[in-house]
What does this fold into?
Amino acid sequence: MSEKKGGEDSYDLEFKAAEDDAWYSVSVALDTVAQTLTVKYSCSPEVYQVTFSAGGFKTELEVEELATRFRPVSRQVQDTQCRQLEVGTTVCASHGTTQQDLRFYDAVIEAVNHRTHSFAGEEEECLCKFVLFWLHGRGRGTLTSASIANICTLEPLSEIDPRISAFLILAKEEVRSSKSISGLRSFGPGSKGSSSDKSNSSMTIEPSRNTHGRTCVHSWRINNYEQWTSQDEDIGPQDGLALAKHRHFILIHNLEKDIIPSSIKKFIYKKTNILSQAFVFPRQSLDPFARGAIVVDCEKKAQIIYDFLDNPNYIIESSRGR
It folds into this structure.
């Protein structure tokens, strides 16, 4: 008999659907014998589910990408909590024209129009309006206004759900055992190749000074970016680096000299929910800063990251003030 973990009626996770890029409350059941992960959507009145097989992945990157599509359930903001929704906060909000057409996507609060709350009887009603910049989905890159009833706060992801973690182990073991890595190239020292410029813009990071708060820090201001697709790109020595055909690169400059790739990856994931690869290029000892790249596997993800980085209302700053 198969060993199953997770209750069918326990909708305790959110899942980003590939079909419409929206977030749904889901229940998850792991079958360790059949090596499957069944995801059931909470989309009443219909019941919809999808089953993933551990043997259905070609690369470990595909397995990791699936993991990024799960997260804890977002929490509905209460009327008395509107002051917690500050400009720059990433939230999950409903987008749609009718109640039957609402889909939930991630957005950043661009502005808040505070209004006096209404008190009908003993209940407080928030009348504030929030301007949202949509990070993905059908409203990606646009601004809309929303009330507090449309907004949920994201729960911190302290660790991967045990059911998801167990399935990732099974899937990665299948990838390694099948050695299904056709179409990948490994880049190491001395690897050379060609690239084709896919954009007429470039990215520069200009130092500016931010004096808000108790301490004075420097910051980076993102102007634009440069993106390539390539089959063989010389990005310096990276042990174990394997890139699929047609990766999308976003080059970044003016980094702290001792920055590590994992810091870049964590920052991008925290702000965009996209799992990327990041690289810091070798530099000369006299170079005043480091250079690097953010790498994703499709143009859509690169565009989402760019839309976030290119937003003129935000400044990216290092912890030590570069």
About this structure: DSSP finds four helices and 23 strands in the chain. The two ends are 58 Å apart (CA to CA).
